[in-house]
Amino acid sequence: MKKTKKLTLTEKIVKKLSREKIISERVINQVVMHQFNTAHEALKNNNTVEISGFGKFTFNVKKANKRLDKLKKFKKGYEEGIEKGVYKDEKHKAWIKNKISTLTLTINSLNSKLENNEN
Prior knowledge:
By secondary structure, the protein is mostly helical. It has 2 domains: 9-58, no CATH class; 61-118. It has helices spanning 9-21, 25-45, 61-84, 90-118, and strands spanning 48-51, 55-58. A two-stranded antiparallel ribbon has the order 1-2. A hairpin with a 3-residue loop joins strand 1 and strand 2. Helix 1 packs across helix 2 (25-45) and helix 3 runs antiparallel to helix 4.
């Protein structure tokens, strides 16, 4: 039996709009992704973004600080695990190093946003 792939919200939006407007999914996907990317960029520079039909998205400093602390703890734990040789399997070690890299990017992004918010 073939397993059906669960669609992401973006894919659902693209498929629905494509059918309703009789426009190719590729074109609709480009428009939707442009909107999401623009909103993401706006959130980097501002505290609030409002998208009609989706709601208002606000940067919450208190939640960001809590998340930042949590991410730093995860990163520290992974780094200590690598130093102590906890991860024996090379695939697992590579995955952990990738996770550390991703955490570092997220931490830097949050730090930047919080610094901008202080000014």
